User: What shape does this take?
Amino acid sequence: MSSLELLSEKQSRKIRILVAKPGLDGHDRGALVLSRAFRDSGMEVIYSGLLPTPEQVAQMAVDEDVDVVALSLLNGAHMTAFPKVVQFLKQKGGADIIVVGGGIIPDADKPKLEKMGIRGNFGPGTSLKTIVDFIKKTVDEKRDLESKKDRAAPRARRKTAKKSSQKRTR
Amino acid sequence: MSSDSFWSSKLKQLEERRRSKNVGDFVPEKMKALREKIASWEKNILAPVLKASPERKESFENFSGIPVNRVYTPEDVIVEYSRDLGMPGEYPYTRGVYPTMYRGRPWTMRMFSGFGTADQTNKRLKYLLKEGETGLSIAFDMPTLYGFDADSVRAEGEVGKCGVSVSSLEDMETIFDTIPLDQVSTSMTINAPAAVLTAMYAAVGEKEGVPLEKLRGTVQTDILKEYIAQKEWAFPPDAHLRIIRDLMLFCTEKMPNWHYISISGYHIREAGASAVQELAFTLADGFSYVELGKNAGLDVDSFVPRFSFFFNCDMDFFEEIAKFRAARRIWATVMKEKYGAKNPRSMLLRFHTQTSGVSLTWQQPLNNIIRTTIEALAAVLGGTQSLHTNSYDEAWALPTEDAVTVALRTQQIIAEETGVTDVIDPLGGSYYLEWLTGEMEEQAYRYFEKIDQIGGVLEAIKQGYIQREIANTSYHKTKDLESGNKFIVGVNKYEVKEEKPIDYLKVNQALQRKATLKLRSLKKRRDEARVSRSLEELRKAFEDPKANSIYPILDAVRSYATLQEIMDVGRKVFGGWKEPVIA
Assistant: This one.
């Protein structure tokens, strides 16, 4: 395939999203509802399962070659866990993966999280539509930017991602 | 599966009762006249009004999706008082587990509490006791719930955040400092390490000179609902069930005043289940534990009396009351007819209630006081033995002292100012309530039959059946909100554009550092050889399915082995468990 064909394939491909609850939080109602909503909206959803460490979340994100990692925490540990995921993503070559946060996040923490690269930070009562639209818009913007850069200077393809079998949803 | 199963024949019985011309206590000739009267009302009074002013919806359903009529009459209620209701404190206990209920003594006011350090929690417990709570209830942080110490790398950012941090007997001693264990009853919401925390409580009692048999309280222990809803397990199901069996045997013999399990529906509901599902899955879990004890060689009447239950209470007022009544009737009936219980105390479903956490809104938090009040009232009218009321700020954080005081006062006002405590089961006999009680009962039996066909609760969990039922309901509830089928004040109706922030409890991030130092100091002071020996004995016990692991757990706890050290022995012997794919 030519690099242009590769590009347009990438543009039109489904959004791949990893839904994860990093750390010690088993309250997964929100994460399960989100996974289903994302899938219903046409995304390919991978659910991390329970109790992954922030490092494991980052590894999964890179292995699965996702566009977005959606982090959900209700237990007050977001200020430690979310930034750790971002940090490990950078270390593992996933710095370009979009990180979106949500859960029980006090307003005061949101700007701090934004600064560290975690976007959205949706609290309880946020509609699914708002979250889905935000993710789609953010991915579109990123892809637009990438395609502009790639047209200017074609870069090496990211090495083939290892597809895990267990947690993929259809 | 065989259509002769206990559940199938029960369902046939209920269906026949519904279809038969037998209308319970109502005289057939009078019923004929009533039917004519209703038909006339529908034609002459109702129809013109509907034509001029239609109702808000085509059809009305309650929160569990059960269609509800405009009004309920004797026609709808197939109740034989003695068979279906009984007097309070009499089989089938529909009206209440005791003959005097709150006329004797109000429910226990038991506020779920815990945050930060053992010391901070000790202060909050003492505060609540001073303000009139009558039972203690401890909330633990996530590391403790999962069996990790505060200095573990897994505990990073989590120490003390959603409950108190307990890593060793030392922390437990601090929590109960100057709280005499022979004068309080304590509930501990802990599951995977339930046996360890029970042992710690027993060890504190020992130090205070309170013997095991005098300790009063509850430990949640209910691992089945963890796999189903709360997801706080450590080992595979068989391992946890074996430890629960050990606890059952130990407590039946040595701690007769201790409820070694609190079979819970609260979390199942919070995970998104309907009230019917909460009722059905909780009781199904209960029946599984009955079988666990029976398979361990115990006589049903020797261990079931110390079962306790724990339910949610959400906003559909009548549905909640019906749920509690249905739960009592089902438990009594099944214990008697299926499990052959002879002791009435095996048939009593005694429960604690917590008002619904998930019903609280982040928006306009003061509104939550009203929600909690309505839920608390439903629990009282439903005959709860013990009650926790949520604080209005809990969609934001753990409760501040002010907020938790209002929550406690809510219970006290209901108890002192409303008069509902002076009449037992005051809504009993309401046509709507009796119909709904029967309807929920029947739907629960359908679930019991289905789970039985799958092969029991454990198999249903391994196949993900129960979890998927809950996830489906949860998803539909969210969609209902988004589509405007359902309204929540402040969230999708009567919203306020600029929400004012409120003052809320902030847990100090430095706790992990403090706890780490404390643990380091403990490890220097304790007898390491004794700890190693006790952990080795525990390992042997875990590896021997016939051994009772509670004794070595007690020894390990007394030697100041940490929670994680003890749980790690289990992790090595039993391994972990990955849930089936639900998402």
User: Anything to note?
Assistant: Residues 128-152 of chain A form the longest helix (25 residues). The domain at 3-152 of chain A is CATH 3.40.50.280 (Rossmann fold). Residues 158-170 of chain A have pLDDT under 50 and may be disordered.
